[in-house]
Write a structure and sequence with these properties.
Strand content of chain B: 25-35%
Structural class of chain B: alpha/beta
Oligomer: heterodimer
Helix content of chain B: 25-40%
Structural class of chain A: alpha/beta
Shape of chain B: globular
Number of helices of chain A: 17
Radius of gyration of chain B: 19 Å
Largest sheet of chain B: 6 strands, mixed
Shape of chain A: globular
CATH superfamily of the largest domain in chain B: Nucleotide-binding domain of ferredoxin-NADP reductase (FNR) module
Largest sheet of chain A: 5 strands, parallel
Chain lengths: 464, 281
């Protein structure tokens, strides 16, 4: 008997006024009984429209059926056939725009909580799973993956399953990319990322950290003397944009990348137990409306800031952040100043940020992206107190690979040009995917691109 | 992990370590730097590459004990390992067409100026090296420097080595005496680099400085190291660390270097508490 409830089984969460003072995970996950109850809402549609919305083609009705039958270990292996990082996807995918968007149950009521179920299965397996992931027999061919973010990890996992000897080169001291330096602990616990990566290593993937490709080795050297038959570039979009307004170089002004890297990767929130410091103030302004802005604002609150505002130039409807994150931020006491844009940052005499001057905006005619263009309202300037200002208005690809690989075609925004269906770049044997190609996008799209590239690399090397 | 092959104490607050890092040694050039992390709880700190040996596969850095992380680094000895050692980072220095140069090192900056002087000297450039220290006990790598230039002038603030005065005084004396320089390279504390730039500006001598702002990743992904050069924001870790000193906003750089001063004090105190606790145990 399917469970015909119109609503998803609720997921337990930490109380907003407790969680905004700690970095522990906000959402606590389903219990076995909750998961079985939610799984019973899936109708097991023959045409499974949900799967069309998943960039890595998880076999959704099949794994959910196994959950309903309490076969959690089998459910895990079903997901694992197509996805290497389910504990992460289940947490950070914008399911409302992907699998759950196409769920038949969503026509009337809420869709099946596919993300929560995927997360449940992955977490269950981490705790109780008996069977270790298998290491495929080597086919003797070496593939290099540049960047250990979601795209690179997915590509490496898929290639390892096919028997390739994969080495990932990572610039940071910890693999994971945005999963470790960007997304905070309270959304994605780092132990979970570590465990997912450990499983990849058990599958035979080698990870070399502290290797900045473009400096210590070039792409040409990887394909030449280092003996790799193909290279996947998944270097992301890590170069922060600044606004170019007065006062942006005052003390107390951070890029969101710096602020979040200090907190997440360097654990500055546990200073002085960890050595990396962070400067915090009573009043904080975060500029931007994406997930990065939400993460920065919520982290600032957890570091003890009293008043944290998000300043965004459009209205809530245009915000690129996930609905759930905006909702969580509001619950935690983050103030939203919508249709506002910073004009300059004012500082003290000795050069510390003090206030942000903003101007109110109104929405004009739609621009090329289809969103209504914000226009400043003359004479509407006002100031907001801010000892700390965090700029979260976007990132673009780091030019390091492009500058050291002259025959790799990039567009005017510095993104690597690829054939969408294969991930092949202009350079033979070199494939790319994720934010390095699209500019800043989502974790799951990067995973999808890594998957596509792995298939293309396999086809290319079989033919070669 | 990266093994320390050799350690040398250069003066009471400055040490040298040679680290086994074959990949970096293959590519390193003067002007570039590395980022290291002492241990799992450590912060990422940048150090200019003082020397490298491509055959042996080693990279040498020279550091001054100024805070908690450098204190911990100095507790390590040959045979110990560093958690992380990343590089070579930043742009290498370029000296095409230079025939005469003054290379100026202030304190620890001498160790960073040394590979620049060495490279210029090897290219056949006539190099005057002017190094400044607080007193004669603080002087480092004098022999190495003497071999890396045409004329070496070692100055002390208090004259305890018989050559009293700041580096700027010696530079001014040489210029006034008619010495012509195609380029001046100044490396040391921000106030010293600013003073050199103010001195050379009216003479119109091209002056290169090596900026040392706060860094985290060192690969251009955070902008923590941003400096204003000629009115534009630059990231020292990728666009530098060398810049045209006459275009650098030194006041801003000095201010930004103090952003975490309070945290640094707290961290050092915590470290001392831990050490004292260990003594008692």
């Amino acid at each position: 008997m399917p469970n015909m409830s119109l609503e998803k089984v609720k997921m337990p969460e930490q109380d907003p006024n407790v969680r905004n003072k700690n970095f522990k995970e906000v959402s606590q996950g389903y219990t076995e009984e909750m998961a079985i109850e939610e799984a019973a809402r899936c109708l097991g549609c023959k045409h499974h429209p949900c799967m069309g919305g998943c960039p890595v083609n998880v076999q959704i009705p099949d794994f959910i059926k196994l959950v309903a039958e309490r076969k959690f270990e089998e459910a895990y292996h079903k997901i694992q056939e197509t996805s290497s990082l389910p504990a992460i996807c289940g947490r950070v995918c914008p399911q409302e725009n992907q699998c759950e968007k196409y769920c038949v149950r969503g026509v009337k009521g809420e869709p099946v909580a596919i993300g929560r179920l995927e997360r449940f299965v992955a977490d269950w397996y981490m705790k109780y799973g008996k069977s270790e992931v298998k290491k495929a027999a080597s086919n003797g061919k070496k593939v290099a993956v540049v960047g250990a973010g979601p795209a690179g990890l997915t590509c490496a996992g898929d290639l390892a399953k096919l028997g390739y000897e994969v080495t990932i080169f990572e610039a940071f001291h910890t693999p994971g990319g945005v999963l470790v330096y960007g997304i905070p602990e309270f959304r994605l616990p780092k132990d979970i990322v570590k465990e997912e990566i450990r499983k990849l290593e058990a599958m035979g993937v080698t990870i070399m950290t502290d290797m900045v490709i473009g400096k210590v080795l070039s792409i040409d050297e990887l394909l030449g003397e280092e003996g790799f038959s193909a290279v996947f570039v998944g270097t992301g979009a890590g170069l922060p944009s600044f606004m170019g307004i007065d006062g942006e170089n005052l003390n107390g002004v951070y890029s969101a990348n710096e602020f979040l890297t200090r907190i997440n990767l360097m654990k500055a929130y546990r200073f002085p137990e960890y050595d990396t410091p962070i400067y915090m103030g009573k009043d904080v302004v975060v500029v931007g409306g994406g997930n990065v802005a939400m993460d920065a604002a919520r982290s600032a609150k957890r570091l003890g800031a009293e008043n944290v505002s998000i300043v965004y130039r459009r209205s809530e409807e245009e915000m690129p952040a996930r609905r759930e994150e905006v909702h969580h931020a509001k619950e935690e006491g983050i103030d939203f100043k919508l249709l506002c844009n910073p004009v300059r940052i004012l500082g003290t005499e000795d050069g510390w940020a003090q206030k942000v001057e903003c101007v109110r905006m109104e929405l004009g005619a739609p621009d090329a992206s289809g969103r209504r263009r914000p226009v400043p309202i003359e004479g509407s300037e006002f100031t907001v107190d801010a000892e700390v200002v965090i700029i979260a208005i976007g990132q673009s690809p780091n030019p390091l690979i492009k500058d050291t690989t002259p025959d790799l075609e990039t567009n005017r925004r510095g993104c690597i040009v690829v054939r969408e269906e294969t991930g092949a770049t202009s350079k033979k044997g070199v494939y790319a995917g994720g934010d390095a190609v699209t500019g800043a996008a989502t974790v799951i799209l990067a995973m999808g691109a890594g998957k596509t590239a792995a298939q293309s690399i396999d086809a290319y090397l079989k033919e070669k | 992990m990266f093994k320390i092959i050799r350690k040398e104490i250069l003066n009471p607050s400055v040490s040298l370590i040679e680290v086994d890092a074959p990949y970096i040694a293959r590519k390193a050039e003067p002007g570039q730097f590395i980022i290291l992390r002492v241990d799992e709880h450590g912060e990422r700190i940048p150090f200019t590459i003082a020397d490298y040996d491509r055959e042996k596969g080693t990279v040498t850095i020279i550091f001054q004990i100024v805070g908690q992380s450098t204190e911990r680094l100095n507790e390590l000895n040959a045979g110990d390992s560093l958690q992380d050692f990343v590089g070579p980072l930043g742009k290498a220095s370029h000296f095409e067409g230079v025939k005469t140069a003054a290379v100026i090192g202030g304190g620890l900056g001498t160790a960073i100026a040394y590979p620049q002087a060495k490279k210029l000297h090897a290219m056949g450039v006539e190099v005057d090296m002017i190094n400044g220290f607080r007193n004669k006990d603080m002087i480092i790598i004098e022999d190495l420097c003497a071999d890396a230039c045409t004329n070496l002038y070692t100055m002390t603030d208090d004259g305890s080595n018989g050559n009293k005065g700041f580096v700027t005084a010696k530079l001014e004396e040489l210029i006034s005496a008619g010495r012509k320089y195609d380029i001046v390279i100044a490396i040391g504390p921000l106030v010293m680099m600013r003073a050199v730039c103010e001195l050379t500006r009216p003479y119109g001598i091209k002056t290169i400085v090596s900026m040392n702002p706060i860094m985290i990743d060192g690969t251009g992904m955070c902008g923590g190291c941003r400096v204003t050069v000629g009115g534009e924001t630059k990231f020292a870790c990728v666009d530098g660390p060398d810049f045209d000193g006459h275009l650098v906003d030194f006041d801003q750089a000095i201010r930004r270097s103090k952003m975490f001063a309070k945290g640094e004090r707290r961290s050092r105190e915590a470290h001392h508490c831990r050490l004292e606790g260990m003594d008692r145990a």
